[in-house]
Amino acid sequence: MVSYEMPMDKIRQKAIITENISIAPGVYSMWLETGTLQEAAPGQFLLLYLPDRSRLLGRPFCIAELKENRIRVVYRAAGAGTAELSRLTPNKGVYIEAPLGHGYPLDEDIIKGRKIALIGGGLGAPSLLFLAEELKEKVTAEDSIRVVLGYRDGSMKRFLADDFISLGFETVISTDDGSEGIRGNVIDALKETGYSPDLIYACGPMPMLSAVKKYASDEGAAAYISLEEHMACGVGVCLGCVTKTVKEDPHSHVRNARVCTEGPVFDARDVEI
Protein backbone atom coordinates (compact mmCIF):
# COMPACT_ATOMS: atom_id res chain seq x y z
CA MET A 1 0.00 0.00 0.00
CA VAL A 2 1.04 3.59 -0.56
CA SER A 3 1.85 5.28 2.74
CA TYR A 4 0.23 8.56 3.65
CA GLU A 5 3.00 10.97 4.59
CA MET A 6 1.43 14.44 4.68
CA PRO A 7 1.67 15.93 8.22
CA MET A 8 -1.76 16.79 9.55
CA ASP A 9 -0.66 20.26 10.65
CA LYS A 10 -0.03 21.06 6.99
CA ILE A 11 -3.59 20.42 5.88
CA ARG A 12 -5.84 21.24 8.86
CA GLN A 13 -7.09 24.79 8.95
CA LYS A 14 -10.02 26.92 9.90
CA ALA A 15 -12.57 27.84 7.25
CA ILE A 16 -15.47 30.28 7.27
CA ILE A 17 -18.83 29.37 5.78
CA THR A 18 -19.89 32.00 3.24
CA GLU A 19 -22.93 30.17 1.82
CA ASN A 20 -24.93 27.13 2.82
CA ILE A 21 -28.12 26.70 0.78
CA SER A 22 -30.53 23.96 -0.26
CA ILE A 23 -30.37 23.11 -3.98
CA ALA A 24 -32.67 20.04 -3.93
CA PRO A 25 -34.65 18.16 -1.28
CA GLY A 26 -32.08 17.20 1.36
CA VAL A 27 -29.15 18.39 -0.78
CA TYR A 28 -27.06 21.43 0.14
CA SER A 29 -24.32 23.52 -1.44
CA MET A 30 -21.75 25.07 0.88
CA TRP A 31 -18.98 27.52 0.05
CA LEU A 32 -16.10 27.87 2.48
CA GLU A 33 -13.42 30.53 2.59
CA THR A 34 -10.05 29.23 3.70
CA GLY A 35 -6.55 30.45 4.23
CA THR A 36 -3.85 29.25 1.88
CA LEU A 37 -5.10 25.91 0.59
CA GLN A 38 -2.62 23.47 -0.91
CA GLU A 39 -3.26 22.83 -4.57
CA ALA A 40 -6.05 20.30 -4.91
CA ALA A 41 -6.88 18.02 -7.81
CA PRO A 42 -10.32 16.98 -9.07
CA GLY A 43 -11.44 13.85 -7.27
CA GLN A 44 -9.74 14.71 -3.98
CA PHE A 45 -11.81 15.30 -0.85
CA LEU A 46 -11.83 17.10 2.46
CA LEU A 47 -12.82 16.31 6.03
CA LEU A 48 -15.08 18.86 7.67
CA TYR A 49 -15.47 19.06 11.44
CA LEU A 50 -18.52 20.54 13.14
CA PRO A 51 -17.66 23.75 15.02
CA ASP A 52 -18.85 22.62 18.45
CA ARG A 53 -16.74 19.42 18.22
CA SER A 54 -19.83 17.46 19.23
CA ARG A 55 -18.77 14.72 16.84
CA LEU A 56 -15.27 13.36 16.94
CA LEU A 57 -14.90 12.39 13.30
CA GLY A 58 -14.87 14.72 10.33
CA ARG A 59 -17.37 14.33 7.50
CA PRO A 60 -15.75 13.50 4.14
CA PHE A 61 -16.93 15.49 1.12
CA CYS A 62 -15.53 15.62 -2.37
CA ILE A 63 -14.33 18.99 -3.60
CA ALA A 64 -16.94 20.30 -6.01
CA GLU A 65 -15.20 23.56 -6.92
CA LEU A 66 -12.04 25.41 -5.93
CA LYS A 67 -11.67 29.13 -6.58
CA GLU A 68 -8.41 30.43 -5.09
CA ASN A 69 -9.15 30.42 -1.35
CA ARG A 70 -12.80 29.40 -1.73
CA ILE A 71 -13.90 25.79 -1.75
CA ARG A 72 -17.32 24.30 -2.48
CA VAL A 73 -18.87 21.08 -1.23
CA VAL A 74 -22.27 19.64 -2.12
CA TYR A 75 -23.72 17.17 0.37
CA ARG A 76 -26.84 15.34 1.43
CA ALA A 77 -28.26 15.78 4.93
CA ALA A 78 -28.50 12.05 5.53
CA GLY A 79 -27.74 11.69 9.25
CA ALA A 80 -27.50 13.67 12.46
CA GLY A 81 -24.07 15.11 11.63
CA THR A 82 -24.89 16.34 8.14
CA ALA A 83 -28.31 17.55 9.32
CA GLU A 84 -26.51 19.68 11.90
CA LEU A 85 -24.14 20.86 9.17
CA SER A 86 -27.07 21.95 7.00
CA ARG A 87 -28.23 24.32 9.74
CA LEU A 88 -24.95 26.22 9.95
CA THR A 89 -25.16 29.82 8.78
CA PRO A 90 -22.71 32.11 6.97
CA ASN A 91 -19.77 33.45 9.00
CA LYS A 92 -19.69 30.28 11.09
CA GLY A 93 -16.20 28.84 11.49
CA VAL A 94 -15.38 25.17 10.96
CA TYR A 95 -12.20 23.16 10.63
CA ILE A 96 -11.29 21.27 7.49
CA GLU A 97 -8.50 18.97 6.39
CA ALA A 98 -7.74 19.22 2.68
CA PRO A 99 -6.82 18.09 0.15
CA LEU A 100 -6.95 14.35 0.84
CA GLY A 101 -6.73 11.27 -1.34
CA HIS A 102 -5.86 10.76 -4.99
CA GLY A 103 -7.91 12.33 -7.75
CA TYR A 104 -8.69 11.69 -11.40
CA PRO A 105 -5.67 11.25 -13.69
CA LEU A 106 -5.47 14.11 -16.18
CA ASP A 107 -2.11 13.55 -17.81
CA GLU A 108 -2.02 14.59 -21.45
CA ASP A 109 -1.25 11.06 -22.61
CA ILE A 110 -4.49 9.91 -20.95
CA ILE A 111 -6.88 12.56 -22.27
CA LYS A 112 -5.37 13.67 -25.59
CA GLY A 113 -7.52 12.72 -28.56
CA ARG A 114 -10.03 10.84 -26.42
CA LYS A 115 -13.82 10.94 -26.48
CA ILE A 116 -14.58 11.50 -22.82
CA ALA A 117 -17.70 10.82 -20.76
CA LEU A 118 -18.29 12.16 -17.27
CA ILE A 119 -20.88 9.95 -15.58
CA GLY A 120 -22.40 10.96 -12.25
CA GLY A 121 -25.13 9.37 -10.22
CA GLY A 122 -26.81 11.41 -7.50
CA LEU A 123 -24.18 12.85 -5.16
CA GLY A 124 -21.49 11.68 -7.57
CA ALA A 125 -22.04 14.82 -9.65
CA PRO A 126 -20.11 17.22 -7.37
CA SER A 127 -16.88 15.26 -7.76
CA LEU A 128 -17.18 15.58 -11.54
CA LEU A 129 -17.91 19.32 -11.57
CA PHE A 130 -14.40 20.19 -10.42
CA LEU A 131 -13.10 17.72 -13.02
CA ALA A 132 -15.20 19.31 -15.77
CA GLU A 133 -13.77 22.73 -14.97
CA GLU A 134 -10.24 21.35 -15.28
CA LEU A 135 -11.05 19.59 -18.55
CA LYS A 136 -12.46 22.85 -19.89
CA GLU A 137 -8.92 24.23 -19.67
CA LYS A 138 -7.23 21.14 -21.10
CA VAL A 139 -9.54 19.95 -23.89
CA THR A 140 -10.11 22.32 -26.78
CA ALA A 141 -12.82 20.32 -28.57
CA GLU A 142 -15.87 20.66 -26.33
CA ASP A 143 -17.79 18.15 -28.45
CA SER A 144 -15.34 15.47 -27.32
CA ILE A 145 -16.82 15.54 -23.81
CA ARG A 146 -20.28 14.36 -22.82
CA VAL A 147 -21.76 14.64 -19.32
CA VAL A 148 -24.37 12.11 -18.17
CA LEU A 149 -26.11 12.73 -14.84
CA GLY A 150 -28.54 10.35 -13.21
CA TYR A 151 -31.18 11.29 -10.63
CA ARG A 152 -33.84 9.36 -8.74
CA ASP A 153 -36.64 11.51 -10.18
CA GLY A 154 -37.55 15.04 -11.18
CA SER A 155 -37.95 16.14 -7.57
CA MET A 156 -34.16 16.24 -7.27
CA LYS A 157 -34.23 19.38 -9.48
CA ARG A 158 -31.34 18.01 -11.56
CA PHE A 159 -29.00 19.71 -9.12
CA LEU A 160 -25.68 20.86 -10.63
CA ALA A 161 -26.78 20.04 -14.19
CA ASP A 162 -26.87 23.73 -15.09
CA ASP A 163 -23.32 24.10 -13.75
CA PHE A 164 -22.08 21.57 -16.31
CA ILE A 165 -24.16 23.15 -19.07
CA SER A 166 -22.68 26.56 -18.30
CA LEU A 167 -19.24 25.12 -19.05
CA GLY A 168 -20.39 24.39 -22.60
CA PHE A 169 -20.58 20.61 -22.35
CA GLU A 170 -23.54 18.67 -23.70
CA THR A 171 -25.27 17.32 -20.63
CA VAL A 172 -27.68 14.38 -20.68
CA ILE A 173 -30.14 13.78 -17.84
CA SER A 174 -31.62 10.45 -16.82
CA THR A 175 -34.16 9.64 -14.12
CA ASP A 176 -35.24 6.28 -12.79
CA ASP A 177 -38.91 7.02 -13.41
CA GLY A 178 -38.55 9.04 -16.60
CA SER A 179 -40.00 12.17 -15.02
CA GLU A 180 -37.17 14.15 -16.59
CA GLY A 181 -34.75 13.36 -19.37
CA ILE A 182 -34.18 9.78 -20.45
CA ARG A 183 -35.93 7.05 -18.51
CA GLY A 184 -33.46 4.60 -16.99
CA ASN A 185 -29.98 4.67 -15.56
CA VAL A 186 -26.89 6.52 -16.74
CA ILE A 187 -25.71 3.66 -18.95
CA ASP A 188 -29.13 3.54 -20.63
CA ALA A 189 -28.86 7.28 -21.24
CA LEU A 190 -25.32 7.05 -22.61
CA LYS A 191 -26.32 4.31 -25.04
CA GLU A 192 -29.41 6.17 -26.17
CA THR A 193 -27.36 9.21 -27.15
CA GLY A 194 -25.18 7.11 -29.44
CA TYR A 195 -22.05 8.64 -27.92
CA SER A 196 -19.24 6.08 -27.62
CA PRO A 197 -16.53 7.28 -25.22
CA ASP A 198 -13.14 5.67 -24.98
CA LEU A 199 -12.38 7.37 -21.64
CA ILE A 200 -14.82 7.50 -18.75
CA TYR A 201 -14.67 9.30 -15.41
CA ALA A 202 -17.44 8.29 -13.02
CA CYS A 203 -18.65 8.84 -9.49
CA GLY A 204 -21.81 7.57 -7.86
CA PRO A 205 -23.31 4.67 -5.93
CA MET A 206 -21.60 1.31 -6.13
CA PRO A 207 -24.18 -0.41 -8.40
CA MET A 208 -23.73 2.40 -10.92
CA LEU A 209 -19.94 2.14 -10.77
CA SER A 210 -20.17 -1.61 -11.26
CA ALA A 211 -22.27 -1.00 -14.38
CA VAL A 212 -19.74 1.57 -15.62
CA LYS A 213 -16.92 -0.91 -15.12
CA LYS A 214 -18.76 -3.57 -17.13
CA TYR A 215 -19.68 -1.11 -19.88
CA ALA A 216 -16.07 0.08 -20.17
CA SER A 217 -14.80 -3.48 -20.31
CA ASP A 218 -17.32 -4.45 -22.98
CA GLU A 219 -16.54 -1.37 -25.08
CA GLY A 220 -12.79 -1.39 -24.61
CA ALA A 221 -12.82 2.01 -22.89
CA ALA A 222 -10.62 3.21 -20.05
CA ALA A 223 -12.55 4.07 -16.89
CA TYR A 224 -11.55 5.84 -13.71
CA ILE A 225 -14.09 5.64 -10.90
CA SER A 226 -14.39 7.45 -7.58
CA LEU A 227 -15.58 5.12 -4.85
CA GLU A 228 -17.98 6.18 -2.13
CA GLU A 229 -17.13 4.52 1.18
CA HIS A 230 -17.76 5.29 4.83
CA MET A 231 -14.61 6.84 6.28
CA ALA A 232 -13.40 7.44 9.81
CA CYS A 233 -9.89 8.89 9.94
CA GLY A 234 -9.60 9.81 6.25
CA VAL A 235 -5.82 9.37 6.26
CA GLY A 236 -5.32 5.62 5.94
CA VAL A 237 -4.79 4.70 9.60
CA CYS A 238 -8.05 3.08 10.70
CA LEU A 239 -8.51 0.79 7.65
CA GLY A 240 -12.23 1.44 7.81
CA CYS A 241 -12.68 2.13 4.10
CA VAL A 242 -10.84 -0.69 2.36
CA THR A 243 -12.01 -2.03 -0.96
CA LYS A 244 -11.14 -5.28 -2.71
CA THR A 245 -8.53 -5.08 -5.44
CA VAL A 246 -7.70 -7.37 -8.33
CA LYS A 247 -3.98 -7.48 -7.62
CA GLU A 248 -2.24 -8.42 -4.42
CA ASP A 249 -0.33 -5.68 -2.65
CA PRO A 250 3.39 -6.63 -2.71
CA HIS A 251 3.95 -5.41 0.86
CA SER A 252 0.83 -6.48 2.77
CA HIS A 253 0.11 -9.53 0.55
CA VAL A 254 -3.62 -8.82 0.63
CA ARG A 255 -5.99 -7.69 -2.10
CA ASN A 256 -7.13 -4.53 -0.38
CA ALA A 257 -6.67 -0.81 -0.88
CA ARG A 258 -7.68 2.13 1.31
CA VAL A 259 -10.21 4.33 -0.44
CA CYS A 260 -9.10 7.41 1.50
CA THR A 261 -5.43 7.19 0.47
CA GLU A 262 -4.98 4.91 -2.53
CA GLY A 263 -8.27 6.33 -3.78
CA PRO A 264 -10.92 7.52 -3.84
CA VAL A 265 -10.27 7.37 -7.59
CA PHE A 266 -9.18 4.02 -9.04
CA ASP A 267 -8.72 2.53 -12.44
CA ALA A 268 -11.90 0.46 -12.73
CA ARG A 269 -9.86 -2.56 -13.82
CA ASP A 270 -8.01 -2.58 -10.49
CA VAL A 271 -10.94 -2.94 -8.09
CA GLU A 272 -13.50 -5.67 -7.52
CA ILE A 273 -16.92 -4.08 -7.41
| Main pleated sheet | 7 strands, antiparallel
- Molecular shape: globular
The number of helical elements comes to 6
Q: Which structural class do the helices and strands define?
A: alpha/beta
Percent of residues in β-strands: 25-35%
CATH architecture of the largest domain: 3-Layer(aba) Sandwich
Main CATH class of the largest domain? Alpha Beta
What is the end-to-end distance? 19 Å
Biggest sheet, strands in spatial order?
Answer: 4-3-7-1-2-6-5
CATH fold-level assignment of the largest domain: Rossmann fold
Low-confidence stretches: 1-9
How many extended strands? 16
How many domains would you count in the coordinates?
Answer: 2
Radius of gyration: 18 Å
Describe this structure in words.
This protein is of the alpha/beta class. 42% of the residues are buried. The chain has two domains: 8-100, Elongation Factor Tu (Ef-tu), domain 3; 108-226, Rossmann fold. The strands form three sheets. It has a seven-stranded antiparallel sheet. Strands 11-10-9-8-12-13-16 form a seven-stranded mixed sheet, sandwiched between helices. A two-stranded antiparallel sheet has the order 14-15. It is 19% helix and 32% strand.
